[in-house]
Amino acid sequence: MSLEIDFAGLKLKNPTVLASGVLGTSAALMKRVFEEGGAGAITMKSIGPEERAGHANPSVLELEHGLLNAVGLPSPGYKNMEEEWNELEERKFPLIASIYGASVEEFVEVSKFVAEKKPDAIEVNISCPNTQEHGQIFGVNETASAEVVSSVKKEIGKIPLIAKLTPQAPNIAAIASACEKAEANAICAINTVAGMAIDIDARKPILCNKFGGISGPAIKPVGIKCVYQIFKAVKIPILGMGGISSGRDAIEYIQAGATAVGIGSGVYYQGIGVFEKVCREMKEWIKENEVKSLEEIRGCAHG
Amino acid sequence: MTKLPKMVSIKRIVQETPNIKTYYLEHKMNAKPGQFAMLWLPDIDEKPFTLTAKGKECAVTVQCKGKFTKAMCDLKEGGKIGIRGPYGNGFSTEEVKKVCIIAGGCGAAPVLLLAEQFKKKGIDLSVILGAKTGKECLFKERLGKTTKNLYITTDDGSLGEKGYATSMLEKLLAKQKFDIVFGCGPEPMMKKAFEICERKGIECQLNLERYMRCGFGVCGACALGKWLVCKDGPVFKSEQLREMPEFGEKALLKSGKEVSLKEFAEWRQ
Ligand SMILES: Cc1cc2nc3c(=O)[nH]c(=O)nc-3n(C[C@H](O)[C@H](O)[C@H](O)COP(=O)(O)O)c2cc1C
Ligand code: FES
């Protein structure tokens, strides 16, 4: 069985998508994740309005059951990426451009420029827990989320808009629903879960930023629950992520209601080939269970 | 493998040159030559350093120049520092018989364990060691113990031959052939060494440097074209270097902005 899917109008050879902030830092690397890694689509590292260095190190750590990061949204700034955009123009893979801003105006400014570069979709990162001045996470508030989504949508026209949500929202289904009403074409969930680690010998937080976001296996149950709740609340497709590194993880997200599945930290656990591995394992499960199409199992856990 | 930074004691400190010191740590780390560790000074920063001793007492060698390394140079024996690793691929040394190593400045650090490993295996080794002055010539004694063929070059001629390490490489290659050239040093020098070897049809393995965050192949901060310096590198082979238009030309700043190598080097200072 083929794993081809349609996600918000994007034709993907398989449902695995490189998550934003992992490896998406150069056009050549993105191409490699598609060709060598086997991803169905690539999300770029989130792009901001200005050049931003991000937080000092330590900024990415490996914990027992996941990663903890506070890279702090480093970005060249959309104006400083001309060569990368040029290289990406000749791409043969579906490209999702992720954007962020500290205000609605900044989101609009970045989206306007990025839309001209014709990515296949634009992901609006209203969920990063990593920055102080961008600290008021839009994604915890329905009105603020909807305002960003509708303002960006006006700028980008036909380009599909994906709203990326945070599990920190008190009611993530309500946020998803507000984004859908504001004309988002898809929902991405989840971004990292806020966390911290202290070195007891140094008696200090390890991350330079003290707080960071947890990703990887530790947050899979959080992601599954969020996707399950969002699926009930909206009709638009969901890009589910958080702790996926096997075919069974991916199928679990699909049964919760995801159409596509994102992989970030899985690259650490399984290498760049994680996408191909997840697809192979999905196919095996599908065959063993005599499933005819992914459609058949999408959201099936809802009964 | 130490995954989270572990606070360890500095056992002893050896002054190598007027501004370079080696820190022997009370920590066991087994590593291949060319692999590196991430060192953490709480409240200051975390940075990658190549390992200059492995096993029961691992060590790193540090030049006191930036904020982090100056803070490190203020540490005394008994002081504490966080360490995690080892990371990276390290040099591959299978099936090499006649070897040349070329190192410039601090580039002597990553090749030290490599040269010592070759000496142990009885491999035919030549080492070219370049520095600004004789005083700053790192590891000349220890490298000298690994081979009779140690060629020192200095910019001011205060030790060995006056001139560039790469000119010495050209001179050696005019008279003899090597199976492979291993190198580490400033990137313009590495690029030059690579071009010389390409003309002669000799394989290279070069240790390169970029800004790093995770050190384990996730964040993409260290991207060098399609490769990750922390995971696919820091040692790259000729076949990779040939497909690396950024080599000797471009690098990413902390923000991810791509700039010329010159601008990158200035920022690192
Ligand atoms: C090092 C790192 C950097 C990240 N940077 C971003 C980012 O810039 N924008 C974003 O929307 N998400 C970012 N994320 C979150 C991931 O895209 C993803 O939502 C999260 O890690 C959960 O998926 P995973 O468990 O597969 O990693 C980052 C994650 C990691 C580990
Ligand atoms: S430093 Fe993070 S990928 Fe290399």
Number of domains of chain A: 1
Q: Structural class, from helix and strand content of chain A?
A: alpha/beta
* CATH-defined architecture of chain A: Alpha-Beta Barrel
User: What profile does the largest beta sheet of chain A have?
Assistant: 8 strands, parallel, barrel
Rg of chain B is: 18 Å
Report the strand count of chain A.
Answer: 16
**Named CATH topology of the largest domain in chain B:** Rossmann fold
- Give me the CATH fold name of chain A: TIM Barrel
Domain module tally of chain B: 3
Small molecules in complex: flavin mononucleotide, FE2/S2 (inorganic) cluster
Uncertain spans of chain B: none
Give an overview of the whole structure:
Chain A has ten helices and 16 strands. Chain A has 303 residues and is α/β, with parallel strands linked by helices. Chain A has one domain (5-302): Aldolase class I (TIM Barrel). An eight-stranded parallel β-barrel of chain A has the order 3-4-7-8-9-10-15-16, surrounded by seven helices. In chain A, helix 4 (142-156) links the parallel strand 8 (121-125) and strand 9. In chain A, helix 3 (104-116) runs parallel beside helix 4, helix 4 runs parallel beside helix 5 and helix 7 (247-256) crosses helix 9. The longest helix of chain A has 15 residues, at 142-156. The radius of gyration of chain A is 18 Å and the shape is globular. With 269 residues, chain B is of the alpha/beta class. Chain B has three domains: 6-87, Translation factors (Elongation Factor Tu (Ef-tu), domain 3, Beta Barrel); 89-201, Rossmann fold; 208-269, no CATH class. Chain B has a seven-stranded mixed beta sheet with strand order 10-9-8-7-11-12-15, with helices on both faces. The longest helix of chain B is centred in the middle third of the chain and has 14 residues, at 108-121. The model of chain B has no long low-confidence stretch (mean pLDDT 94). Classes of the chains: A alpha/beta (303), B alpha/beta (269). At the A-B interface, helix 1 and strand 5 of A face strand 1, strand 4 and strand 14 of B. Residues 212-215, 217-222, 228, 230 of chain B line the site of FE2/S2 (inorganic) cluster (FES).
